[in-house]
Structures are given as structure tokens and as C-alpha cells.
Queue: 2 jobs
Job 1
Amino acid sequence: MPRRADPPKGEKRSAVQARAACVCGAVRLEIDVPGVWAWHDHGEASRRAQGCAYATYVGSWKSRFRMLLGEELLTRYEDAERKTTRSFCARCGTPMLYERARSPKIVNIPRALFASRTGREPRYHMNLAEAADWEYGGAPLAPLKGYPGVMWERPKRKKPADAIDALFTAQD
């Protein structure tokens, strides 16, 4: 990404920035490191907007956030019911920004857009009650024979029906 010139007079900047970009590279941004916080959002709206089991975001103070390129290519979707706004690259559709009315000084950026560290690791989980029933729950994984790099959850062994019935029969 092109390096930006010195910040405008009066603009504060940390010594380190993390840069992010959409898939096609037309929209680029940076935040001062460290970010405010990072979290996994299991909510239905974020799951659908990101197209994945859950979305991982890094929050930044708006005063420590800068658009470097392509701000005019951002398309916004305002969800009046949830009081949120999501911005996407109009060229490639990459989700870029997530803003919430209850946090007007913070902008949230999908963690996957950053190539480098943001100074915050996602340690929080939000909206777990809305988690998809098919989301990976941390079950043990094993290598799938014949497919290097592929891991899978082995199916649970079923107990024989008569063993289960024995649990529920009265014993003298």
C-alpha cells in the first residue's frame, strides 16, 4: 500500500499503524496500533453480513482511524432497527466498516482485512445466544486420511440400544 505523507498539522498518530484493504485493493484504511478492542460477534446480522459462522472485529477510535484510498467507493447499509451501519466496497463487496449508534466514537473493522497485528487479540465473544447451531464448537479434530491439511470431527460412536435401555430399567 502507498505510504501516506506526514499527518496533517494537529493530527495525532501512534508510532505504529496497521493497514487494511478490501479484496480488490480499491479501498484501503489504517488504524493506530493498538486498537481499542477485538471480539468475535456470533450475532445473526454479523454472520450474514460477513458470510461466515461469526465475524471478528477490531475496534478503533475514529480519531485513530484513517481512510487511505477509495472512500468514495464505500457503499453503506443502515439498519434502523439495530441502529448500526455497515460499509462495503462497491467494487468487490468486501465488508469494510461496522458502526453502532451506541458507540459513536468507535469504528469496527473486520480483523481479516488486516495483514499485520492490530495490537489487540480477540478475547471477547458477543451474541453467543445467536450462534449458529452448525458453528464449530471446539470438538477434537483428527487429520482426514488422504487429504493433507484437512481436519475433521469424527462422528460420535452410538451406544448400543440395549445398553441405553439398561440405564432406564428398574434394578432390584
Job 2
Amino acid sequence: MPRSSPLPFLFFSGKKLFLKGVGLGLLSVLFSGGCAEVEQRHGEQRPNPYLTPDTRHPIPLPPPAGKEHRAVMLQHLETIQVIMNALVEEDFELAKGLTETHLGFFMHRQAMVSQQPENFPPAYHDLAMAHHEAAEELARIIPTKDLKQILPQFNNVLKACVACHLEFKVRSGS
């Protein structure tokens, strides 16, 4: 009865043993090279994406207006969640209505009445308009009930939200 070996490739002879040995040798070199590289990187300091400096531009709003603006932003976030749920539930009428009234130009006009537009930088207005335009396009496409058309447009609305939040904040401490 042949003796069991922890290295089964030793039972091969000739070219097979040589090829397996070369293969294992190459794998060892590749793995050790990869490990050595990881070891070198381990000591390096990498930037933490969650601790990067805040480079957003503050919007100069007095505290009451800042709180009101924050409430509008939270309402947008809640509306996005309810619209997504309506799409999941295939309640396209609710999704369209919420998109138009809470994210579209109607909401923009309401916000301009209650807030002082002169306190907002022109670039903020451009981003807000891009957000409302994306929402209007989403509302236009929702009646198709075709999620392959709706979801990319919903993603465009989210991109517009993110673009604005990456660029602006209500004040430097927020």
C-alpha cells in the first residue's frame, strides 16, 4: 500500500513533477510578492474618505432660515424615500404626484417665497434648478410604468441631490 504524503504532487515523476514544481514555485513567488506588497502598504497612511476635509461652501443664512432650509432638505429626503416606496409598490400615480409637488418646480417656487433667494449663491440656484429639472423629467416618465426608464431618471434626481450636498452646506459647523 503506497504511503500517504501531505504533498500529493510527489507521486508524479518526470516532466509532470517538474512542471508541478515550477507551477508551485511561481505561485509561491506571486503570493509572497503580493503579501510583501501588502506588508509595505500596511505601514503607509492612507487617506480616510470619511475624514477628508469639508470643502463645501457655506450658504450664509441666519439661524432661523438655516433651520427652515434644513427642514426643506429633510422633507426632500423623506419624499425621495416615499417615491421609491411608491415605485416598489407600483403606485405610479402617487410617485408622479409626489415628484411634481415636492421635488419639481412647484416646490422650488414655494421655497423661493419662504426663503431669501439673495442669500444663496448663483451656483446653488443652478444646482437647485438641475434638481428640479431632473424631478420634472422623472414625473414625465413615471406614467410609462417602465422601471427601465424610470429608475435611471430617479438616479438622475439622486445625482442632482448629491451634487448640491457635495458643494454646499448651511454653515461651516454643519
